[in-house]
Amino acid sequence: EDQVTQSPEALRLQEGESSSLNCSYTVSGLRGLFWYRQDPGKGPEFLFTLYSAGEEKEKERLKATLTKKESFLHITAPKPEDSATYLCAVQAFDSWGKLQFGAGTQVVVTP
Amino acid sequence: DTAVSQTPKYLVTQMGNDKSIKCEQNLGHDTMYWYKQDSKKFLKIMFSYNNKELIINETVPNRFSPKSPDKAHLNLHINSLELGDSAVYFCASSQELASYNEQFFGPGTRLTVL
Fold it and tell me: DSSP string of B62-112?
């Protein structure tokens, strides 16, 4: 069965203190790996899709990378507005669009 | 605004009652989903519909019945509510089934069963 494990569960950062979140996965044929951001009381907001090992994508202070077994979300010089739960999800080729989510990493950035 | 919308945002009810949650998307997408997020914040798919046809049914109790009157709407009806049904339910949509397209999520409906 497809599995997604995110670490750490929670991360507390000072403003400007860069860090990385990890998403380890096992899936039978990866169609895509997705990163979402979820703010309290809101639905997940799409950030990136990665399709193949070696791929990288960037958006403002966020950069996502993918290997054959894991993905990293790097947060460079974070600001308090980057505080959120970051969710990783995988989609397999035979999954009919189903996203298998990890439990998320809760990030708090303090001024 | 183009988006995925859900009603109601909050739903508090007694055990044994029947309730419905409505979802609408105006993104022109073909596929819609229901996800459940439990108290540990774990998001798990329940159903997906493509052009009004049920595609995924993830071992959800029969008390949960999705209905898609058209491809822009996917409603969730829950019979005989139980305490364990308390969770946040999210509707989502994507452009095509089993494609590379990302899924867009609604704001969620927080269901509390007393």
Answer: TTEEEEEEETTEEEEEE-S--GGG-EEEEEEEESSTTSSPPPEE---EEEE
- Tens of pLDDT, residues A5-33: 999 999 999 999 999 999 999 998 899 99
Compute the nearest-CA separation of A28 from chain B (Å): 15
Å between A75 CA and nearest CA of chain B: 21
> Which of A45, A50, A98 to mutate to test binding with chain B, by most B CBs within 10 Å of its CB?
A98
pLDDT tens column, B22-78:
999 999 999 999 999 998 788 999 999 988 888 888 878 999 999 999 989 999 999
